[in-house]
Design brief:
ten-stranded mixed beta sheet, alpha+beta, three-stranded antiparallel beta sheet
């Protein structure tokens, strides 16, 4: 039984796992990328940038949801060993206020480089990039936060985040913050051009997948076609398509889960050419079929997908359904990385924090790709933190070395022994 508590122990850390991630990021040249790739016009800001960026990365590694939580890392001996000086939250807030469109775009470039490291390590030759958006609710009066589509809190101000994830790696490719009233497809074509310019090579095939019909836009489709890539996009119901799928000449093939599929080539009124559409239909719920109209096919619910792939119709629908993984990746970013949970007044400061959070997200994956087993790679970040980061340690300095002592009974020591032999 404990009879007394004393605050007298020295050189203790409660986040020993920060060593794994900071050391690995350093060895993979991430800090060098930031130092050379992020340049402020103000010389004094440029001088202090690395300390504050490393501070934010440390905070993101442990999952802070407020700048105030950075005080948990002040005077941490492990953080000090990496020459990181955790300043007061107000000081860090002022630093983040220095970001602009130009410097946040530099962070996006750094994120592309971090993703390319993951892609090279994976040696993948075919990847699927999911593009999706998500609303971040705002309670204050932050710059750029306006009333828009906000399903959880209608009428509230919000931001709209655009994400691009590589499904095979669970990795963040790129993205950015937008005002809350921004239409879904806005900026998507330009983002696709960026992605192609950054990662497309002759031996890499890319499929762009979008499971939101808001991306059903010819400008987006033409951008992908011009880049020599493939696409699979959920379509909208148009009379042009509806009239064709109920025509007597159209036959549906039975697939899984009561689904039937067919395909057709159609040109919408504003399009310049025909494109391939895959149509899936399922029976409506029985209660909705109680009183059927005299229209042929009215007992079915129809789903449209436009694609330039050569997959059979049934496999197109199955490939589309895998797009739900992106929603899980976005949830992990929002709940485990606190994306959108703490916001500053400046729009560009919030964009900078978003990019740093997603850089941290990929740094977790980069470390797990090198040292975790197959199952652990796909585990959520909060699980990784509980197992490997939130660990007590004691820093001991001797004449010739610095030693971090961990629990003798720690059950996951293999990860530390493997990454730091």
């Amino acid at each position: 039984m404990i009879n007394k508590i004393e605050f007298s122990a020295k050189n203790l850390t409660s986040n020993a796992g920060l060593f794994l991630l900071l050391d690995h990021a350093n060895k993979n040249g991430i800090f060098g990328l930031i130092d050379h790739g992020l340049v402020f016009e103000n010389a004094s800001t440029n001088k202090i940038k690395m300390n504050h960026i490393k501070t934010m990365l440390c905070g993101n590694f442990i999952g802070i949801d407020k700048l105030e939580r950075l005080k948990l890392l002040q005077n941490d001996p492990l953080v000090n060993e990496f020459n990181i000086s955790i300043k007061e939250p107000e000081t860090i807030s002022r630093f983040l206020g220095n970001f602009s469109y130009k410097t946040t775009h530099m962070l996006r470039e750094i994120n592309f480089k971090a993703f390319r490291k993951l892609l090279r390590k994976s040696e993948l030759k075919d990847i699927t990039i999911d593009i999706d958006s998500s609303v971040v609710n705002v309670e204050g009066h932050q710059e750029g936060a306006v009333k828009g589509f906000n399903p959880k809190k209608p009428g509230n101000r919000c931001y709209n985040l655009q994400f691009a994830f590589c499904d095979e790696l669970k990795a963040y490719v790129t993205g950015f913050m937008r005002s809350g009233n921004t239409y879904t497809a806005n900026g998507a074509a330009e983002m696709i051009k960026e992605i192609v310019a950054q990662i497309k090579t002759d031996d890499l095939e890319i499929l762009f997948r979008m499971d939101n019909s808001g991306y059903f836009d010819e400008d987006i489709i033409e951008t992908i076609e011009c880049a020599g890539c493939q696409y699979l996009i959920k379509g909208k119901e148009y009379p042009t398509l509806d009239s064709q799928v109920i025509a007597p000449s159209i036959s549906f093939s039975k697939g899984d889960d009561g689904r039937e599929t067919t395909e057709l080539f159609a040109k919408l009124d504003t399009w310049d050419k025909d494109r391939r559409f895959v149509v899936s239909r399922v029976l409506k719920p029985k209660k909705n079929r109680a009183q059927l109209s005299f229209l042929e096919g009215d007992e079915f619910e129809y789903f449209y997908f436009v694609t330039n792939t050569e997959l059979p119709s049934e496999k197109v629908v199955i490939a589309y359904e895998k797009g739900g993984n992106a929603e899980n990746y976005i949830k992990e970013a929002k709940y485990d990385m606190a994306v959108g949970h703490f916001l500053l007044q400046s729009f560009w400061a919030n964009e900078a924090m978003f990019q740093l959070m997603m850089l941290t997200y990929n740094l977790f994956l980069l470390f797990k790709m090198d040292f975790a087993n197959g199952i652990e790679y796909w585990q959520q970040i909060k699980t990784f933190r509980l197992k490997y980061i939130f660990l007590a340690g004691k820093i001991i300095r001797t004449a010739r070395s610095v030693i971090m002592k961990l629990s003798e009974k720690y059950p996951y020591r293999e990860m530390y022994e493997q990454s730091f032999p």
